[in-house]
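Q: Here's a chain of 376 amino acids. Please give me its 3D structure as tokens.
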Amino acid sequence: MSVIIMTRSAWYVVVAGAVVALGGCKKGKAGGGAAGFGGGAPMGMPVEVAVARVDTVRDEIAATGQIEAVQSIDLRPEVDGRIVEIPVHEGQEVDEGTPLFKVDDAQLKAQVAQLEAQRDLAQQALARAKELAQQNASSAADLEKAEAEARGAQAQYDLQRIRLDRTTVRAPFAGAVGQRYVSLGDYVTNTTKLVSLHTVNPQRAAFQVPERFARDLKPGQNVSFRVAAIAGRDFTGQVDFVDPVVQLPGRTILVKARVPNPARLLQPGMFIEAHLVTAVRPKAIVIPEEAVVPAEGANAVWVVIEGKANRRQVELGVRTPGFVEVTKGVNAGEQVVVGGLELLAPGAPVIPRVVERGPNPAAPAAPAAGSPPRAP
């Protein structure tokens, strides 16, 4: 009987020990886990960041227009007659004063010879009148009449001589001969178009700008543009004319820029896409555009400071392909998050990895207040 009681007591002791041991083991595991979470550093979220940099930003106005010649005219003769000579051909570049057409001058030559003889006769009569006046053999009225006749004959001769010289139509400025409207043997008058003449170097880029930019326009501003017919080539010029009148119905202002054209690539009428630089900021803060997050009608970015994410509202300036100017809210050298923004919260620990961002060639420049500026 005593043996059985002792056995049961021992079994109770074994079971109690096992329970205590199991409880101690669970407490040890729970305590160890808590110590491991609280004692170690918290895990941060990996994000990609870019460094805000200082760059030169240009405010630009985008516009379309065309190439124009600085000088462009349709030549007309000053003397009526038949075309007897055309010494130049269409498309030829000529210097100022180059003969372009010759009008028949046979009749004018005869008239000039006749008037020359009359002039000589009047001068001889004047000389005789002076001699007689010195001898008191004629009146002062006779002398005055002879002088007037001599001056009149000289004027008639000079006038006809000018008309004879103008039977040769000359280039009033250096340029390229355009389309010819007459042929040899045509009878022309002072209303007949003979040929067009255009300057070739420099040329002018003309385009229309909305009136809201009127205060930003002034001569001397730089213009860059591309021509649809010449792919991959940039041209530059300077504004030399801003129309003081706003044109209706589009309420636009005509702007013209003088552009060097030594290679004769630019031709009047070519379509252009122009960018007019109205302001240059050499120390602008620029960040990748994917760092900007729209928030409650404003714009914000996530800035990493001491390993934690901080959200800041920012004011944006001009945009370029892949980048945007920050006028307020970010300083140069600060890290802004460009990848992994979706799960960020204020004060959240992060593990930043700096990446380089380049402009996206497929993304067109987005205008800021109507201006699509560029950052080189």
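Q: Can you summarize the key feature?
A: Residues 132 and 260 are 68 Å apart (CA to CA).
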